């Protein structure tokens, strides 16, 4: 989910900051510029990990800033293809599900990648997985409604270079980084679907213990 | 800005969480004017996610203990990372994280042994 990337950037240090700790000043400048931002083809920057090298600083004619080339490492959110991640459903529509991992909310699972066979319920706009039961009972409806914790497998990461002259409307729909995923495989989908057996066993054990104490 | 090397290494969720805890402490000790607003937001949100994940109960020691024990199972680096991050508690979960499970683990016992190793080393995740 997280990687360390080696980056290089030029950082300007204001004259009044020259007396304070250089590492701290540079870290702050880099975090201001990059934290919580998407770097195209890299990922979402979380924060500066450490500073590897501060190059020679130079002063441009006509200003007092000290500029230095800094090589540093950054913690970046960039899932790899096939990585399994747990996320929360935040939006459900006919097109598919939008998932969130708190700090990143542009994760999309298209309808055709939901567990088969899946049905969309117009009433309430939610998806459910029609799970066929073995004992001849009608199939169970396993809902994937907003708020549920689900597991998905990353299939693709799409980066898009957004132009600055976007309307507010476009800004909402256009994403500079989008993660696409699938839930169509055993073990994927709602976390509760696959752990319930274990809980039942635990409950059964508890029941037995209760009986023994009686 | 230039990217010199896209991926130097990968980090486990536990490493990121403990690093962010340090960052938070450092930020809190600073004066208000010196704090970075964007950083505070992303640190808060990332911590919120990781605090609900198995990473919150782990520490460096338990992970270092687990890795040599995983060697006999011949997992790839990415698979090991996934096992640490998600802490599979049953064979269904493990099959999800390991490619071509049936060919590499023809015996169900081997998989169960892997699950037991992981469950023994890593503490149980927080209850939701």
From TrEMBL, chain A:
Residues 83-194 form the RNA polymerase III subunit Rpc25 domain. Residues 195-214 are annotated as: Disordered. Pfam families: RNA_pol_Rbc25 (PF08292), SHS2_Rpb7-N (PF03876). GO terms for biological process: transcription initiation at RNA polymerase III promoter. It is found in: Nucleus. Its main location: nucleus. Residues 197-214 have a biased composition (Acidic residues). Keywords: DNA-directed RNA polymerase, Nucleus, Transcription. SUPFAM superfamilies: N-terminal, heterodimerisation domain of RBP7 (RpoE), Nucleic acid-binding proteins. One of its GO terms (cellular component) is RNA polymerase III complex. Residues 8-64 form the RNA polymerase Rpb7-like N-terminal domain. Belongs to the eukaryotic RPB7/RPC8 RNA polymerase subunit family. PANTHER family: DNA-DIRECTED RNA POLYMERASE II, III (PTHR12709), DNA-DIRECTED RNA POLYMERASE III SUBUNIT RPC8 (PTHR12709:SF1). This is RNA_pol_Rbc25 domain-containing protein. It comes from Caenorhabditis tropicalis. The lineage of its organism: Eukaryota, Metazoa, Ecdysozoa, Nematoda, Chromadorea.
TrEMBL record, chain B:
Residues 1-125 form the RNA polymerase Rpb4/RPC9 core domain. GO terms for biological process: transcription initiation at RNA polymerase III promoter. PANTHER family: CALCITONIN GENE-RELATED PEPTIDE-RECEPTOR COMPONENT PROTEIN, DNA-DIRECTED RNA POLYMERASE III SUBUNIT RPC9. Gene3D superfamilies: 1.20.1250.40. This is DNA-directed RNA polymerase III subunit RPC9. Its main location: nucleus. Belongs to the eukaryotic RPC9 RNA polymerase subunit family. One of its GO terms (molecular function) is nucleotide binding. It comes from the Eukaryota. It is found in: Nucleus. DNA-dependent RNA polymerase catalyzes the transcription of DNA into RNA using the four ribonucleoside triphosphates as substrates. Specific peripheric component of RNA polymerase III (Pol III) which synthesizes small non-coding RNAs including 5S rRNA, snRNAs, tRNAs and miRNAs from at least 500 distinct genomic loci. With POLR3H/RPC8 forms a mobile stalk that protrudes from Pol III core and functions primarily in transcription initiation. Pol III plays a key role in sensing and limiting infection by intracellular bacteria and DNA viruses. Accessory protein for the calcitonin gene-related peptide (CGRP) receptor. It modulates CGRP responsiveness in a variety of tissues. Keywords: DNA-directed RNA polymerase, Nucleus, Transcription. Component of the RNA polymerase III complex consisting of 17 subunits: a ten-subunit horseshoe-shaped catalytic core composed of POLR3A/RPC1, POLR3B/RPC2, POLR1C/RPAC1, POLR1D/RPAC2, POLR3K/RPC10, POLR2E/RPABC1, POLR2F/RPABC2, POLR2H/RPABC3, POLR2K/RPABC4 and POLR2L/RPABC5; a mobile stalk composed of two subunits POLR3H/RPC8 and CRCP/RPC9, protruding from the core and functioning primarily in transcription initiation; and additional subunits homologous to general transcription factors of the RNA polymerase II machinery, POLR3C/RPC3-POLR3F/RPC6-POLR3G/RPC7 heterotrimer required for transcription initiation and POLR3D/RPC4-POLR3E/RPC5 heterodimer involved in both transcription initiation and termination. InterPro entries: HRDC-like_sf, RNA_pol_Rpb4/RPC9_core, Rpb4/RPC9, Rpb4/RPC9_sf, RPC9. One of its GO terms (cellular component) is RNA polymerase III complex.
């Amino acid at each position: 989910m997280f990687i360390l990337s080696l980056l290089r950037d030029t950082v300007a240090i204001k004259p009044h900051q020259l007396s304070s700790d250089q590492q701290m000043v540079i870290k702050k400048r880099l975090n201001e510029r990059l934290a919580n931002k998407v770097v195209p083809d890299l990922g979402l920057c979380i924060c500066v990990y450490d500073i590897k090298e501060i190059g020679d600083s130079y002063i441009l004619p006509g200003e007092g800033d000290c500029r230095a080339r800094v090589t540093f490492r950054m913690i970046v959110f960039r899932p790899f293809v096939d990585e399994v991640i747990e996320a929360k459903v935040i939006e459900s529509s006919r097109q598919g599900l939008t998932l969130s991992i708190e700090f990143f909310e542009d994760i999309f699972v298209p309808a055709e990648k939901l567990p088969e066979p899946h049905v969309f319920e117009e009433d309430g706009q939610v998806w459910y997985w029609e799970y066929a039961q073995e004992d001849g009972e009608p199939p169970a409806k396993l809902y994937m409604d907003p708020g549920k914790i689900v597991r998905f497998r990353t299939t693709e990461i799409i980066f898009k270079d957004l132009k600055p002259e976007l309307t507010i409307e476009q800004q909402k729909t256009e994403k500079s980084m989008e993660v696409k995923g699938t839930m169509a495989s055993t073990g994927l989908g709602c976390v509760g679907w696959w752990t319930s057996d274990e809980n039942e066993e635990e409950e059964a054990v508890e029941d037995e213990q209760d009986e023994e104490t009686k | 800005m230039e990217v010199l090397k896209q991926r130097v290494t990968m980090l486990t969720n536990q490493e990121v969480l403990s690093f962010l805890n340090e960052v938070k402490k450092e930020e809190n000790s600073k004066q208000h004017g010196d704090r970075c607003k964007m950083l505070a937001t992303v640190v808060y949100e990332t911590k919120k996610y990781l605090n609900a994940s198995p990473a919150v109960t782990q520490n460096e020691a338990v992970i270092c203990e687990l890795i040599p024990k995983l060697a006999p199972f011949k997992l790839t680096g990415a698979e090991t990372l996934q096992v640490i991050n998600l802490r599979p508690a049953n064979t269904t979960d493990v099959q999800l994280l390991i490619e071509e499970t049936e060919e590499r683990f023809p015996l169900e016992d081997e998989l169960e042994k892997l699950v037991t190793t992981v469950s023994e080393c890593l503490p149980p995740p927080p209850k939701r």
